[in-house]
Amino acid sequence: MSVRSSPSTRSYAAQKGLSVEEIAQSAGRETIGREDVDAHISGGGAPASSGPAANHARYWDVPHAEFGPVKTEPVSRFAKLAADNLSAANATIPQVTHHDQADMRAVEAFRAKMKPEASARGTRLTALAFHVKTLARCLRDFPKFNASLDPKGETMILKDFVHVGIAVDTPHGLMVPVIRNADQKGLFAIADEIFDLASRAQARKIQPNEMGGASMSISNLGGIGGTAFTPIVNPPEVAILGLTRTDTVPRWEDGAWVPVPMVPLDLSYDHRVINGADAARFLARYAELLADPVRLIAFPAE
To answer: Distance between CA 107 and CA 264 in Å, rounded?
Structure first.
């Protein structure tokens, strides 16, 4: 049997008076990790630790340098924490993603109309501000999306506040600062807060109390590209909205083809709380509001 194992694992086994070939034969595997050595010593014949990562660690403990040049780079504490959270979320949440798109003509026209006033205020009125405002409104219209499950999954906690998380890609990892009470703020205030939070996240100046506690988060890849993706729900939230690049597509209207800017919407949700019909209705309402953004201002609590 040809056994795959890292030099450190072979050294560790030798220190225990064992060989990885002996352990591999006992375990019935060709790839051996340090946990397999410990399990062999304890007489269990399988890794002593538990959990998905431990059970599959032997597949990752591969002597990559034997196949070609490599270099190592330490994983930051921040990235390790994020990886642990995402792994736990993906392992425990039965997640489904619903895809839709929304007409952005009215939003772009409104932004153009408000551009002089926004410039005078020193505000960058981006499309993301409209998405935050729209999401805040939808969270009021659909309380189940503004909920969390208790740790045992037996009680649903319905929140009477609307906080929207904004995922920010930074050199030191993904950060999600939160816009508090987004449903009570105007578009200019939201736009200013997005710029402030994103800038300070890039500079690593976000305070701990400015993250966490979101009702729901937005992961916006529109500035990078893509047509769709599957964002991972960030517990204790029960849903997350993904946005990708707005694309101009032809639509048949009134007997003619019309160029229409459409933004893809990717809504991932916890199927224990939300079902497919809920998700479809949520994004239908979301698209309806983006198609008529004046309603966000004229009827904020409709």
So the answer is: 15
State the CATH class of domain 81-298. Answer: alpha beta
DSSP 271-298: TTT--HHHHHHHHHHHHHHHTSTHHHHH
Question: Model confidence over 52-75: pLDDT tens digits?
Answer: 455 555 566 788 888 899 999 888
Nearest to 268 by CA among 218, 215, 227: 218
Q: Based on the residue annotation, tell me whether 271 is a catalytic residue of this protein.
A: yes
The domain ranges of the chain are: 7-72, 81-298
| Structure confidence by residue, pLDDT tens digits, 230-287 | 999 999 999 999 999 999 999 999 999 999 999 999 999 999 999 999 999 999 999 9
Rg (CA), the chain: 25
Q: Could you say which of 40, 64, 163, 271 is catalytic?
A: 271
